[in-house]
């Protein structure tokens, strides 16, 4: 069983929204992702989708985008992104998912010998830039939710298992220095952390960063060449 990851697909099967308005990197990007998926993923593998799956505003409209993923091999594990407005009730989301597709929200799931946990997170404070009270409130809340998900994962772990943490927002700021998020993550020593959210040439598009011995992998499709990122292979 191997693990791959990709994020920020921004699907819109029911109401097509051309992504190449954001630049040529989005030209035929789904074709490239499909090719990478078909070349690499076997039916017993896992593909992590680290947020921003769909432009849909309602769960009903998102079902066609979820069905699109269901065409491909592997177990799929989803986490909510900042543009996943269709994702409101986790109970309703899970009820709408097909077999072998899972949603993680401040908790964990175990597939074979891999335990996946995670939370959406929030923007990490930049140096010398004061947080607004509202941003600090959300940031502090997300630190607690991340810890909750890691605690849930710990309860599922047995000897020989691999732990992978999935977030949408990067768990650090543009300096890649440790944050409250990474301090929590380091206590559990996961095999890897995957995240997305970042887009465009101006982004801190470092494919892989290691902090405190933990490997952090960027998965935003436009910044990883529209190919699945190998996490555990």
CATH architecture: 4-Layer Sandwich
Structural class: alpha/beta
What is the total domain count? 1
CATH topology tier name: Purple Acid Phosphatase, chain A, domain 2
**How big is the Rg?**
17 Å
Order of neighbouring strands in the sheet with most strands: 5-6-7-8-10-9
Strand content: 15-25%
Largest sheet: 6 strands, mixed
Oligomer: single chain
Tell me the number of helical segments per DSSP (H or I, 4 or more residues long).
5
Low-pLDDT regions: none
CATH class, named Alpha Beta
| Shape summary | globular
Number of DSSP-assigned strands = 11
Q: What is the N-to-C order of secondary-structure elements (H for helix, E for strand)?
A: EHEHEHEEEHEHEEEE
Distance between the termini: 8 Å
Give the helix level as a range of percent. Answer: 25-40%
Mean pLDDT: 93
Keywords:
five-stranded mixed beta sheet, 233 residues, Purple Acid Phosphatase, chain A, domain 2, alpha/beta
Would you write up a description of this structure?
The protein is of the alpha/beta class and about 230 residues long. It has one domain: Metallo-dependent phosphatases (Purple Acid Phosphatase, chain A, domain 2, 4-Layer Sandwich). It has helices at about 30-40, 60-70, 90-95, 135-155, 180-185, and strands spanning about 5, 45-50, 75-80, 100-105, 105-110, 115-120, 160-165, 190-195, 210, 215-220, 230. The strands form 2 sheets. Strands 5-6-7-8-10-9 form a 6-stranded mixed sheet. It has a 5-stranded mixed sheet with strand order 4-3-2-1-11.
